[in-house]
Amino acid sequence: MSPLDHLASLLRTGTEEGSRALAVSTEIDDVLRRIRERAKGSARETFSEDQQLDAVRRFWQSQEIASFRDAYLLSWGLCLPHKPSAPCVLEDRPRLEAVLDGVDSWSERPSAFRRCYQGLAKSYFTYDAFGNNTPSTARNNWKLLREYLHDKNALIKDRQVNPDWVATAIDNRQLFGENPCAPYVDELLRGDASAIDHLCEELGIAKASWFLRELVLAQIRGATQLSDKQFKGLLPRMLELLANNDVLRDRGLVMLLDRYVKVPGMHLQQNLRDWSVLWWGNPWLPSNETRWGGVVPEARSMVSDWLKLEFIETFFTKLAEDGMADRRRMEFWKHYVKAIDHIEFALGSTARNARDRDFVVLRKKMEGLICHLDASGSNNAFIMRMGDLVAVEFSGMGNALYGYDARRTVPFDTAEPLRLPQYEHNSLKQKNRSILWLSHQDGINGWSKWEQMFDAKLREEFGIKPQTVATRVVRPSSPPHSAQHPENLPPHREQLAVESAGAGVPRHYNRFALNKLTHRLGLRIEDRTPKGGSLWVLTDDSDRQVAEILSTWGFQHKAGKGWWR
Fold it and tell me: How many angstroms separate the CA atoms of 271 and 307, rounded?
């Protein structure tokens, strides 16, 4: 074989080996990544909490920092109590200053200083300086730490290779300023949380950090400063933020309610109504006064009206007899929502015991307003307080409206089981003791529609008007059921009583006119007609004009008792 052929044979073997496919391996990528991290100094040296605590305990006794390792461990352990129920370094001013001085001695060596700086930043984001129970001294110490992180921020950057978090800390120096959350609000309101996610990842900000909590409030505060349209568009998302944060809920909800009440029209915002009632309870119940005390009165009234509207709609639809909606009654009472001071629901067995989700949710929302109605089936009652009038509507079609004088003893107690049959104990239907009894019937008493009749009676006899807050009349100081005769009044009041007694009195008797007369004069009625007896007005015949009216109406006088018919 010639030398040339020999060389060719040798080369042939090498070319054959080189033509084979190399095996693919990712191990080299991991090796390269670790090398890069080590070169940049980003690989975090991990120390356990026990090691940090050991350093804290030693420092607490000596108040000396003997080595860089101590400075490093103390930077990360500022929030660790040196023993159970004891203060941490951050809550002790002299010790905190000693740690900062110890860390500061490494400030000319960026690679070492930034490792301590990273621990200080972690402690800064961990300690809850905004907590209700945080001492003012501790809050001031936390501010000192914040100022240190802000002032020393540039010293963590080396001329050589730097960890990624260094650039993040320097670019976001405002995190260590007076308003750490402000720069990120606009992006968050636009729905972009990428910057915050990056911050938390790079700087090790835990989910429990005060920063993320305060960021929620900053968003809400920012939303309240936008236009009405923008605010309303963001409102559902702001409520979702609060739904996931019990600590911030009250503060955030106050801001949202106080802002929404300034929106023209204050149209129903269902989410705002439902969440606020769920978190704070019924806005007009005295037991919830404290929880609702932080909002402006107009906001509380707004939610009250929304809730009353919902209750009115619910009663005349879902709680109506056999599920047949009574929309005329519903629409009528919706106009009086501002006049209604208080609402109670007397629920029959079906509504009290129903297990389907709608009824369960409804009863939860009505908590504190439900009374026991001793009645079967779909019988329910709706009790409204409007100024001096307690009005009762019933779910069943064909039932009249009963009205009672709230200034006197209402003839039923909602704390006890209520009943429907007339004249039974604690019945809601006691016509003889009512001051108002109105039938939902068109074409009676000169009115084409019952709504017109109801409106007139409420307006004329009780001063109750649609979309107007009802007023209460101060009750006279006389005994509850005693007659107050004109001759016993001062001259100016005597004339007033006589004039009011005869004002607008019809020539022919009707029960409405009698109720109106006795209500004005404080007289008591006893109606025994259901048991075959007479109708009595308990007063004497000393008032000439009253005597004349009752005589005209067919009443007869019995000395020592009153007038009967």
Answer: 12
3-class SS at 390? strand
Looking at the structure of the chain, the number of domains it has is 3
List strand residue ranges (DSSP E) for 388-465, in order.
389-394, 401-405, 436-438
Residue 341 sits in the same domain as residue 401: yes
- Alpha-carbon separation of residue 456 from 292, 460, 515 (angstroms): 35, 6, 15
Q: Which residues fall within 8 angstroms of residue 399, CB to CB, at 6 or more apart?
A: 393, 440
User: Which structural domain range is residue 522 located in?
Assistant: 486-564
Same-domain status, 443 and 504? no
Beta strand 436-438 with 562-564 is: unpaired
Q: Of 82-91, 141-150, 370-379, 437-446, which has the strongest mean pLDDT?
A: 141-150
Q: How far separated are the first and last CA of the chain, in Å rounded?
A: 150
Residue 303 domain flag: no
Of the residues 448, 473, 498, the one at which a domain ends:
473
pLDDT at 104 exceeding the cut of 70: yes
DSSP symbols for 66-121:
-SHHHHHHHHHTTTSBSSTT--BGGG-HHHHHHHHHHHHTTTT-HHHHHHHHHHHH
DSSP per residue, 499-511: HHHHTT--SS--H
Task: State the number of CA atoms in the 13 A half-sphere of 372 facing the CB.
Answer: 5
The more confidently predicted of residues 65 and 552 is 65
The verdict on 542 and 458 lying in the same domain is no
Cα 429 to Cα 421: distance, rounded to the nearest angstrom: 7
Q: Does position 126 have pLDDT exceeding 80, yes or no?
A: yes
Question: Last residue of some domain: 134, 153, 178?
Answer: 178
Pair 110, 154 in one domain: yes
Residue 112 has a pLDDT of 93
Residue 87 lies in a domain: yes
What percentage of the chain exceeds 90 in pLDDT? Answer: 58
Do 446 and 508 fall within a single domain? no
Helices (H), 152-269: 164-171, 185-189, 194-203, 210-224, 228-243, 249-260
Q: Which of 103-112, 270-279, 443-452, 482-491 has the lowest mean pLDDT?
A: 482-491
Residue 188 lies in a domain: no
Residue type, 98: A
Dist CA 416 CA 204 (whole Å): 59
490 occurs within a structural domain: yes
The phi, psi pair for 556, rounded to 5°, reads -120, 150
| Burial per residue of 410-424, b for 16 or more beta-carbon CB atoms within 10 angstroms, e otherwise | bbbebeeebbbeeee
pLDDT tens-digit readout, 395-416: 887 899 999 998 887 999 999 9
Among candidate residues 468, 465, 186, the one with its CA nearest the CA of residue 301? 468
Residues 336 and 398 in one domain: yes
Q: Which helix (H) or strand (E) holds 347?
A: strand 342-347
Give yes or no: residues 437 and 494 share one domain: no
Whether residues 381 and 320 fall in one domain: yes
